[in-house]
Amino acid sequence: MKTKQLLQLGIGLLSCIFLLMCIGVPAIFFWVSPYIAIGIVLALVSIGFMLYMMNFPSYQTNKFYRFDPVFKKPGNMRFTYRKSEYLFSCGQAAQQMLLQKHGIYMSQDEILAIAGEKTLGTTHWEIEDTLNQIFIQKGVPLIARINYYTNYAQLFDEMHKRRGVIVMFINHFNEKGFSSHSMYPHFALLTSINSSNDAEKNKVILTSPSYSRSGNICFESGRYEGEIKMSLQEFRERFYADSKFLKDLEYKPICTPSRWRNMIHRFQNSLFVFGFYIAYATKILKPGIAICIDEKK
Fold first, then answer.
1. Are 69 and 46 within one domain?
2. Cβ distance 134 to 102 under 8 Å?
3. Hey, which of 115, 136, 246, 247 has its CA 20 to 30 A from 185?
4. What is the pLDDT confidence band of residue 5, given thresholds at 50, 70 and 90?
């Protein structure tokens, strides 16, 4: 079973168990006493809320700025841009660009054949595993690893290594059929990062693959193709899955000609968002995800 399927199964089971406990257990005790049933519901909701608050991604954002203030600013890393060939293949496009940087040329379909799905995307676990399989097959002495709760200093270190780093953040998903405020977990390559008292220099630049040209609403005319720029503060919030972005996740289009389909998709998107909250509460998912490349020893 693929990592993606295991993740869906794990999150789905936890979500179902929690919902069943909130509905089924109180329903059983309702016949004994409505007050006991109400008390159980309040207790379960409180436990769920406290569990989530303990692991809430936004509460972890202070970790991002844990760094020594003295840095030698790394230069920008440029990548040959590759757009996503499928709606949800940003992970494969990011891998394609990173691999090309190391002299490995593969299509997104070849990468998809190893791991990932065209209809839902890929996970950071699959990206790590896929890159390591390719490095072994091609005889390249590199190894990919996942870093959680990645801070500013660690991203600086990775930039100095000049091997490339893929980050996962909550990005705009401005594709056909989706709402204007839709978001989706997105993979991109870190091109530049800088902290400064000068607001113009206090920024992050990413090489961000999109399916369509309009999909990258942060794209600015005159920049290198595929590059998007955002403030360090905004990147930190998106990188650590702040709830103001997380609540707008969509993986099903809700602006189709069919009203009934839109209603069904809205419900599916709600379950999708709920699943992410459950995943963060149980630490199946952790914020600040970066896939880094090290030399194999």
1. no
2. no
3. 136
4. very low
**Strands laid side by side in the 142-147 sheet:** 142-147, 290-295, 165-172, 183-194, 203-207, 227-231
Closest by Cα among 289, 49, 46, 262 to 146: 289
State the pLDDT confidence band at 213, using cuts at 50, 70 and 90.
Answer: low
Residues 28 and 114 in one domain: no
Residues 126, 203, single domain; the answer is: yes
Range of the domain at 224: 63-295
- Pull the structure tokens for residue 129: 């595993």
Per-residue burial over 201-229, b if 16 or more Cβ lie within 10 Å, else e, is eebbbbbbbbbeeebbebbeeeeeebbbb
- Please name the residues in contact with 81: beta carbons below 8 A apart, sequence gap of 6 or more: 97, 207, 209, 224, 225, 226
- DSSP class of residue 222? T
According to the model, what pLDDT value does residue 256 have?
Answer: 85
Rg, the chain, Cα only: 21
- Name the least confident of 18-27, 116-125, 285-294: 18-27
